[in-house]
Structure of tRNA-specific 2-thiouridylase MnmA:
Amino acid sequence: MRVLAAMSGGVDSSVAAARMVDAGHEVVGVHLALSRQPGTLRTGSRGCCSKEDAGDARRVADVLGIPFYVWDFADQFAEDVIDDFVASYERGETPNPCVRCNEKIKFSALAAKALALGFDAVATGHYARLSDGRLRRAVDVDKDQSYVLGVLTAQQLRHAAFPIGDTPKPAIREEAARRGLAVADKPDSHDICFIPSGDTQAFLGARIGVRRGAVVDDATGAVLAEHDGVHGFTIGQRKGLGIAGPGPDGLPRYVTAIDAESQTVRVGAKEDLEVRSLTGIRPVFTSGVAPTGPVECEVQVRAHGGVVPAVAEVVGDELRVSLRVPLRGVAPGQTLVLYRPDPAGDEVVASATISRPESC
């Protein structure tokens, strides 16, 4: 099988490529240049896809004895991931750019180019597993990335490979060291890759500008403060609200709603954050077939969040999810991922972008 190994320059994708070579596949390594400033260097564990990362990936490819290329996807990444991220915050939403990158870049644009060039599959260093074409959680639950892969279609999964999903992260580092790969101890990247400073508000503010509005008490309607734009807030946020102190009951206040049209941020008690149902748009079913009628499932709404039991049903072009246990702080723009509630509880069933979290 001809395999294109997406090599970020980190330890996970390096071991994934090595394992595909060991399996006897014809492997070609490729590093995605996603920054319009290719000279940008990584700062510790912040950022990725930098000049340093490309060099690390090339050195690993040399050790493995495989061809290596750098492909420029910077313009498409800027449009499909960065611009989408900014626009989502402008609408008062809370997006996950890693989900969008997997959906639009790694398993769409990259995979399409790979297939056009005659490759059979794209291998990545994601912590997830494929079994009979079904997407499952990784063995290492703490590193599991099935959530951010839940947007992949059945067609995309047919041409994907996740070689390290059956191995805990410490063992991956040990394997990299045994193979003589210099990235064995390289820090994992954290935060949002295109915001290496880690200051998301500054990044958004520079692109959106000042759009003043009011912070309003949800119970009384009183204006508590002014702000420079709803992009500085997310549902469930407690700190940085600009208000004088806790509410009349002496308890902290949280962001409970965001109205981008009026630039209004509403705050209330923690209990006001409880959500009992979700409506998702643009649903994707990893089997390729939508279920008929209600299905018991478990739902996850954050990359590292827990799961709660639920009942999901397709209604028109939407996915409606009734939660058996309420969640708190769910925002429009987040991705909901459904898992099959079997004893293992690790198979991804579907995903959708949350448009309406509701308390009833």
